[in-house]
């Protein structure tokens, strides 16, 4: 009798959860609403560039900060690679503690220095501090250091959900800002004085800049390069990246939590028995921006994860000097699960090609699911 009652009560709980889950899914919109955004007014573009001008040095010093145990892959590596190849500033990748930085959802790197050693070498502070998304938004070492850098006159740039880290530091209070679409509600709830700006990939206000999703670091860095060194330099770097334009226009309405998004996340998670581990060979001189985009995208399918491999242990140095540590020591990888080395592919093309490959391997829903996470403005077949 007790066993029967237990079974019935368990079945009742399961049925309730199914009903609640179904109601929740039905409450989600069936699609996001896309709209063509007008060009950015010249006056607004000029004001943005003026606000991003180097605050201290003629050749600025730019610090990219991360925590060792969970910093977003593309937020950390894309600004580094793009700014390094532009050669208009001195760029350093930092961590809060000695040792490697484990990026999320993929890759592991050796930073150039710690925040403490940076402070010892540059007591006057950086010109710009770039803040990626981090696994913890309120890491006390990061928030304290950001406040210190801001007080020394540094422009603080929050990339994607890095806006939550900047917000936790108190630097966004009362200012205009944006962030990744998924993090927007949380940011506004925790910091109600922030004034959200829609339909802009990046927003600059009183010494702080913020961007929308992961891929927005590319146009943000090009705009920063233009502010430092002029339009011609930014255009040259953009050509090398394979990017035709990088203005601030953005379709915020095209990115939201929809029913297809939720169903794809659930379905791909439940298909754990078909999960694949895909290998990317590390080669000296590889393009770290392309590598970050490819590893990040494949690791967001919920069907696969990207790992790096090399023939021997130890860091492999990328095109622009970041030291990447292999996840596994191996001379090769099974051909059906091996991703191409990131040698000469332009980053924008590398991402487009990766999305095409995800489409071929897992279908349109998973491709759109990845693009939505990256907040990548592309034509999505099923939102």
UniProtKB/TrEMBL annotation:
All copies of the DJ-1/PfpI domain together span 64-226
Query: Which InterPro entries does the entry mention?
Result: Class_I_gatase-like, DJ-1/PfpI, INH-QAR
Domain of life of the organism in this record?
Bacteria
Q: Which Gene3D superfamilies match?
A: 3.40.50.880
Pfam family, any one: DJ-1_PfpI
UniProt-listed PANTHER family: ARAC-FAMILY TRANSCRIPTIONAL REGULATOR (PTHR43130), HTH-TYPE TRANSCRIPTIONAL REGULATOR RV1931C (PTHR43130:SF3)
Q: Write down what this protein is called.
A: DJ-1/PfpI family protein
């Amino acid at each position: 009798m007790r066993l029967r009652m237990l079974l019935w009560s368990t079945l009742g709980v399961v049925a309730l959860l199914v009903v609640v889950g179904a109601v929740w899914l039905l409450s989600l919109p069936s699609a996001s609403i896309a709209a063509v955004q007008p060009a950015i007014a010249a006056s607004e573009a000029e004001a943005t560039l003026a606000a991003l001008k180097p605050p201290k040095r003629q050749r600025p010093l730019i610090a990219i900060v991360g925590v060792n145990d969970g910093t977003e892959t593309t937020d950390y590596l894309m600004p580094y690679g793009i700014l390094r190849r532009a050669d208009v500033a001195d760029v350093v990748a930092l961590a809060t503690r000695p040792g490697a930085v484990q990026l999320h959802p993929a890759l592991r790197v050796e930073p150039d220095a710690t925040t403490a050693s940076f402070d010892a070498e540059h007591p006057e502070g950086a010109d710009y501090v770039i803040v990626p998304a981090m696994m913890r938004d309120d890491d006390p070492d990061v928030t304290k250091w950001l406040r210190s850098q801001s007080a020394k006159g540094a422009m603080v740039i929050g990339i994607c959900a890095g806006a939550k880290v900047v917000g936790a530091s108190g630097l966004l209070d009362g200012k205009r800002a944006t962030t990744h679409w998924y993090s927007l509600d949380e940011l506004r709830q925790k910091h109600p004085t922030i004034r959200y700006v829609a339909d802009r990939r990046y927003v600059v206000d009183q010494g702080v800049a913020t961007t929308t999703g992961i891929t927005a670091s590319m146009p943000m860095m090009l705009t920063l390069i233009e502010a430092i060194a002029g339009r011609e330099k930014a255009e040259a770097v953009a050509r090398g990246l394979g990017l035709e334009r990088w203005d601030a226009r953005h379709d915020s309405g095209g990115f939201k939590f929809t029913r297809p998004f939720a169903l794809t996340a659930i379905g791909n998670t439940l298909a754990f028995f078909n999960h694949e581990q895909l290998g990317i060979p590390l080669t000296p001189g590889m393009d770290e921006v392309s590598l970050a985009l490819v590893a990040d995208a494949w690791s967001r399918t919920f069907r696969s994860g990207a790992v790096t491999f090399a023939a021997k242990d130890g860091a492999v140095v990328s095109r622009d000097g970041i030291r990447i540590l292999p996840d596994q020591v191996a001379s090769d990888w099974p051909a059906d699960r091996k991703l191409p080395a990131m040698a000469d592919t332009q980053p924008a093309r590398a991402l487009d090609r990766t999305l095409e490959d995800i489409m071929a391997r897992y279908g349109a829903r998973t491709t759109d699911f990845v693009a939505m996470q990256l907040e990548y403005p592309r034509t999505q077949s099923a939102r």
